[in-house]
Amino acid sequence: MPLVEITPASHDVVLDLAYATPRNITGKPIYRNAICFLNEEAASLLERAIGLARPLGFRLKIFDAMRPSEAQWALWNARPDPNFLADPRRGSPHSRGAAIDLTFIDASGAELEMGTPFDDFSPLAHHADTAVSADAQRNRFLLLGVMSAAGWDFYRNEWWHYQLFDAKRYPLFSDADLPRAMMG
What we know:
The protein is of the alpha+beta class and about 180 residues long.
């Protein structure tokens, strides 16, 4: 299945690919090149979500999407926590181009309050956690509503993570399989 590159120009999104920076659980960049890909079905659902967010006054800020299998291993080796990371031996929806990590931004470009930062591997990051502020709960449910209405499935432990239903039907991608390398 071909991959679609997602850019600010092509999709009117903001890219802040955390794994291309040291702002991630490894403390160092995993991706050499900050490139965002999704498989064709996921890219189509992203376009739907963008269209649903726009009339609400929001845009999408993407933290991660396609994640080569080698990157999944780097994350797993840093923190092998199956509550927050897919075991790379089974494959991640991200490594299939079938998952995206994102949030809403407002007209000024500020992220909406979600109660935790991206990749906060604690119970506070769970969609339904009520220990975060009422504003954060409301914003999480708004994001969940937009993404669900666009056709995405969610992962209950991470407010930022959405994936295609039955993502395992898509092949895994390594860095060498990508149209342009992310890691090398």
